[in-house]
Amino acid sequence: MEYDVDANFDERLPEVIDYSCYVYYDRPGSILEWDLNVLCKGYFLLLSAECFNQFVDKDSFVNHHGNRVYLNNEEKLVLLDIFQKADEEYQKDNFSKEIMVSYAFLLLSHIKTFYQRFAKGRNLKHHKLVDGFNLMLSKYYEDDKLVKGLPSVSFFANELNCSTNHFGDVIKKHTGVSPREHVNKHILRVAKRRLKQSDKTIEEIATGLGFQYQTYFTRFFKSKTGITPTDYRKQ
After folding, report:
1. 185, 220 Cβ separation under 8 angstroms
2. Contact between residue 111 and residue 23 where contact means Cβ atoms under 8 Å apart
3. Beta bridge partners of residue 24, listed in sequence order
4. Interatomic CA distance for residues 7 and 89, integer angstroms
5. How confident is the model at residue 62, as a pLDDT?
6. Which of 145, 157, 195, 210 could form a disulfide with 167 if both were Cys (CB 3.0 to 4.6 A apart)?
7. Do residues 125 and 167 touch, judged by C-beta distance below 8 A?
8. DSSP letters along 164-177, please?
9. What is the distance between the alpha carbons of residues 175 and 64, in angstroms, rounded to a whole number?
10. Does the pTM of the predicted model rise above 0.85?
11. pLDDT, average across residues 46-61
12. What share of the chain has pLDDT > 90, as a percent?
């Protein structure tokens, strides 16, 4: 079975690097944006949804939306070695998609292991609360018919059987960001994706996100991006 695989590789990194290194990951369908204040160097690999979804399930680490895992030096070199081998294969005139997919699955398997190591350092109960919140938030907009207004912090706290204050304290402590900020960022991510990938009107998108009026959506979007939804779609 063939897979659509696209890979982009920066020039080869040195064998040993002693600056901080992270691995970032996301699911198909997300819009990736980078706002970097310093020059970063590394690799990235893009997989089709068909290929990616064979690796993940509902309990997969990619659903937790940590998006970033810190790598120690040993883990860093393991991933660099795989990326470099994948790069060598990709540079061939007739590279093998099967081999590229194998390298991709190997990378995901290692990242899953590194994520589990990373997660062990957190309180288990709090870890489950954070993961539960991230999973619920990621699924909130999966069916427009089930959306009952904008997602609220109290809604997630109630669903996870804890007080709003406790919920807020745990999420902020373990992620560095308040629940409200997580919610707003997710609303914005979904809004951008729908503006780019659907033919729905601005009003329909606003309603699907849970905004009572289109003007509220426009005001929210502009406060976060500096431009209106209409201008964003034109870009």
Report:
1. no
2. yes
3. 68
4. 11
5. 65
6. 157
7. no
8. HHHHHHHHHHHHSS
9. 12
10. no
11. 72
12. 36
Q: Roughly what angle, to the nearest 10 degrees, separates helices 164-175 and 179-197?
A: 70
β-pair partners for 209: none
Provide the token pair at 134: 């991230």
**Distances from the Cα of 233 to the Cαs of 127, 164, 183, 219, 227, in angstroms?**
37, 36, 22, 15, 10
Q: How far is the C-alpha of 31 from the C-alpha of 193, rounded, in Å?
A: 6
Instruction: List, for residues 69-94, the tens digit of each pLDDT value.
Output: 777 888 889 989 999 999 999 999 99
User: Closest Cα partner for 212 from 152, 153, 148, 155?
Assistant: 148
Tokens encoding 230: 């209409």
In this structure, which amino acid lies at residue 226?
G
Torsion region of 6: left, alpha or beta (phi above 0 gives left; psi -120 to 50 gives alpha) = beta
Tens digits of residue pLDDT in 212-232: 999 999 999 999 999 999 999
Which secondary-structure segment (H or E) carries 68? Answer: strand 68-70
Closest to 160 (Cα-Cα) out of 127, 186, 190, 184: 127
Rounded to the nearest 5 percent, the helix, strand and coil shares of the chain are 55, 5, 35
- Do 5 and 51 touch, CB atoms closer than 8 A? yes
- The pair of structure tokens assigned to 13 is 């990194």
Determine the residue type at 122.
R
The torsion angles phi and psi of 13, rounded to 5 degrees, stand at -80, 155
